[in-house]
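Ticket #377: bound-state structure for adenosine-5'-triphosphate.
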Amino acid sequence: MNLSLYYPRSSAFISGQIGLPHNHPKSWYHSLATGLAQRRNTPSGQSVKHTHMIKVEGLTKRYARNIAVKNISFEVGKGEIVGFLGKNGAGKTTTMRVLTCFLPPTAGKASVAGFDVLEQSLEVRKRIGYLPETPPLYPEMEIATYLTFVAKLKGIPAGDIAKRVDEVCERTSIADHKHTIIGKLSKGYRQRVGLAQAIIHNPPVLILDEPTSGLDPEQQREARQLIASLSGDHTIILSTHILSEVEQSCSKVIIINNGEIVASDTVANLHHRQRATESIRIEVSGAPAGQIKQRLEQVAGVASVESRDTREGLEAFEVHSLENHSVRPELARAIVQAGWNLNELRPVGESLEEIFLELTKSETSASKDKEQEVVAQ
Ligand SMILES: Nc1ncnc2c1ncn2[C@@H]1O[C@H](COP(=O)(O)OP(=O)(O)OP(=O)(O)O)[C@@H](O)[C@H]1O
Ligand SMILES: [Mg+2]
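RESOLUTION: The complex was predicted; output attached.
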């Protein structure tokens, strides 16, 4: 195998990880493989205690005249899974590439496990498993040969490699295809091999750029389960365009728009964030839907009423209030006074999709202007 054929950035990445001999008692793999307490030991024996595994402060990345990431700051706690959301071109991959030391920041700082991505990139690289948008795979290699090759490059002791390759093949459900040539794999299976190479050295931090992209629904579910099983011991940032994935897999969401962070919170807090208007789900029986709707629309502070499903004589509606109006007591009173039965009345949180679209819509024209500016260059 001609090593010069190897994906150049990945080669640089991996070759940077061979800091100590594989069998060295203080090798990074040795400390990773022997547990959390020892994971805190650096190769030089220094103790590193950080509640924040990833810290980004005022990070800016500029490509020529195009600023892809503008002065963003965020922190990711140990064991957290953070979903990185944003439209195409928002700056997700760029941020991930800075965190994984593929790109230097233009301004600002980023650190992983307390190590600066610019000044201590070797230490950072040892602690990161990276699944890029396009996994760096050798199409002519068998899966097992490729993973063995990666394991060697990542400094896993020779005696542990076969066991570790078997383990990651099991975890990523590719054990039955270990001897298949990578070039013959479907996109979904290539993605699994990409995940396998990212976790093979059991790094404490995983940066996964659209890990479920191209997977069928069953494979997506398996990949999510795998990612969930890695949480706790691993700190994970994953980017995705699948909003339900964030709700299922992530403890925290960072929404990035046009290079800027527009939200950074838990999924639950985002659903119940303070809004000027409220939406209420209401179920009523005892009168025709049209009559109930008309009465609800007359309640002070109501902006609009939408009919929802009707079942077994129950009429359902979603009521939206005007800004800064709390309409729930008045709605209840109106229904009871009309002599109808009030079966349900509850505030409805916004869906993540609604939140995402709202937070990313205001910049749309600005993004278009920016794109035009870039095209014109
Ligand atoms: N190598 C590059 N040279 C110049 N501009 C770039 C380069 N890579 C990315 N960009 C620009 O930086 C901005 C952010 O791109 P980035 O790939 O980080 O977005 P993204 O959020 O990952 O998008 P997607 O969801 O499509 O993967 C875009 O405007 C993009 O065109
Ligand atoms: Mg991207």
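RESOLUTION NOTES: The pocket of magnesium ion (ligand 2) is lined by residues 92-93, 133, 209 (CB under 6 Å).
TICKET STATUS: resolved
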